Amino acid sequence: MIIVGMLACLAGVVYTFYVAQQEAGTESQFRVLANDMRVAQNDVVARARATTRGDAATFAQLAQDVSNFDAMLGDLDGAGIDGEVSRIQGNWQPIKDSAQLLVAAGDDITFIRGVSVDLESNIRPIQSEFAAVVDILRDENVSVDTIAAAQKTLWLTERIARNIDKILAGGEESQAAADEFRQDAANFNRTVDSLKNGDRVMGVQQLTDPDALDSINTASALFSVISASIDQIASSSEQMREVAGAREAIIESSPELTAAISNIVPALDRLNNARFFDRTTLLVLFGAPALLAVGLLIVMFRGQRRRVEYTEAGVEDINGALVKIAEGDLTVKVPEDNEVTADIAREINASTRRQRELIQNIRTPFEVSVDEINKIGKTARGQVDKGKQLTRSVVDSTTAATEMVRTSEEIKHSTAEAAKSSEQNRSRVERGYELTKDMSSASADVRESVQETSKSAKRQGELIQSVTNAAEYIQALNTKISVVAINTRIEAEKAGEYGRPFLGIAEAIGDLLREAEEEGRKIISEVRMLQNMSAENMESMENTVGTVVTILEYIERLDAALEEINDGSSSISSIIRSVDDAAGQSAVSAQHMNNSMAEIRERNVDIAEYSEFTQLGVSQLQSSMRDVADNLSQFRIEEGVANAAFDLKTSGEVEHVNGSPSQFDEAEMTALEDAEDNRASV
After folding, report:
1. Taking the CB of the first residue and of the last residue of the chain, which one, N or C, has fewer CB atoms within 10 A?
2. Contacts of residue 420, Cβ cutoff 8 Å, sequence gap at least 6
3. What are the GO cellular component annotations (predicted)?
């Protein structure tokens, strides 16, 4: 009976330990699976944000991430936590549907983004070709409508590029942008055809100059990428709005899915406690025979003692590694030759490896951001200089208009001195013609400056997106460190007395997590502020472009009036007959031009204010980047290399953007006030 009792006790104990080991291994696999699901969810959100770039590889990776998450979700069916799995499925389904919608629209997004990039690279050559056509037409005897048609293509191309970006963004203005894009593209093609073949309805004469025809053909060939896909781009506005909605749905549903995944570990803990009590009952049933196996228990105790010592050695290695990790040294590697702690060691090594990769990936966007912010500062300073040049041109043009009005009055009141007035008028006409050329050149400089600023603003938007992705990587890093801290606490509770050193380490890791989360919130706040400032700056630039176009139209009218005055000065009799009409038309044109000059002055003041706002936003963004760099410098990611890899303070300072404290000096303001008084007297 004693032998039978000992064998029964031994069988019960062996069976109990076998079941415990099996269930512990299965629970460990499910915990690792929960961690992988959290990482896969973050990858899906990051890929969804990255689809705005139109990269075909991003859509393929997004489809693969969705498939991987589905596979991991299927592996949870045997975990015994059906309620948590059901909640994860309910929160995952909207994200999955939105991601599949993004993947289905991947070809269209890639195509439209490619067209936008091609047009952005071709817009400057297209405008240069048409600017050459305008210069040729000025030297030839053609109608004003012909010159105006050639100039119209300059701002049509800019508005077409902006509307394509709005369509791709899928906002509330996408449908209006699509309609305007279709109309502008048709007007561009019609204008090119009219310049080649002539159009009586539009008043456009057929071009015969070979150089002008070559320039038009070259520009038309560069614009062919748009002409061949007008309907496809315009009709995709509705799909782009759905894509934008799907992208927002993924971002909004992500926190709920994250919370559902986080509930897996507590559910496994509750399930583990229930199973533990079942095993305790089993041990009670075999407790009586165990009294007969004291000798066997002594042998087992000695074996267990050796296993405890073996475990203590592994725990000591993990303890030392975690202390170094808590101090910021991510180059440490935990030995994996201990069978008891091998799984924990592998998890810690994998976590530190991913942390090193993430921190290394964060470094590059920061360096690029600093370089691009310096470029933004230079562009803003150049914009202020262009504004000063425009101010001087406004003052000269206002003075010329005032002189022309005075000349018109003298012509009305003194027909007896027609011959002498003719010579004076001709000289003034020549001076006004030169001034209009200067004004046209200054307007072209302003348009180029606005284009450069627009490109810089677009690059700033991309940099903001890069910073947002970096913040998301930081959040993912925090999540992974949190998983390590949770696993450490769990293992510490299981280990009893031997696990107490882990509690202090877990608290240190928690402190680091709170600091990282605080810095992440600061970055997101600053990025949003910079996005708002960029939007305001873009709106001001669009208004400036419209004003410049209006100025060019008035300059054309003024040129026509000056040419009529010059032709009328050929004979005294012609001057006397047409003096009233010419003088009246000159006065009206001068009044319009003065009004336009006042509007340009107001726009120039607005641009100066926005430049100061841009300077403030750039300075705040750099401050936030420095704070993040200070926090990241606590981590060591390479053997024998100091943490200076993340010291971005010396990588480049943002150049100070000096806003113009005054747009007009004393002489310029006096000239403008005199012009207003003279215009009122006329």
Report:
1. N
2. none
3. membrane
Domain ranges of the chain: 344-682
| CA–CA distance, 179 with 159 (Å, rounded to integer) | 12
Q: Which class for 574: exposed (0-12), middle (13-18), buried (19 or more C-beta within 10 A)?
A: middle
- Helix 82-104 to helix 56-75 angle, to the nearest 10 degrees? 160
- Are 161 and 119 within 8 A, CB to CB? yes
pTM: 0.39
Residue 216: what residue type?
I
SS3 636: strand
Nearest in space to 602 (alpha carbons), one of 554, 649, 664: 664
Q: How far is CA 145 from CA 132, 201, 553, 558, in A?
A: 17, 11, 10, 14
181 CB burial (10 A radius; 0-12, 13-18, 19+): buried
SS3 164: helix
**How many other C-beta atoms can be found within 10 angstroms of the C-beta atom of residue 645?**
17
Digit-coded pLDDT (tens) for 138-175? 888 888 888 888 888 888 888 998 898 888 888 888 88
Strand partners, 636: 329
Residue with tokens 């704070």: 627
pLDDT less than 50: residues of the chain: 1-2, 4-5, 13-25, 276-277, 279, 281-282, 284-285, 288, 641-642, 644-664, 666, 668-669, 672-673, 675-682
- What is the rounded CA–CA span in Å between residue 366 and residue 630? 13
How far apart (Å, rounded) are the C-alpha atoms in residues 122 and 128?
Answer: 10
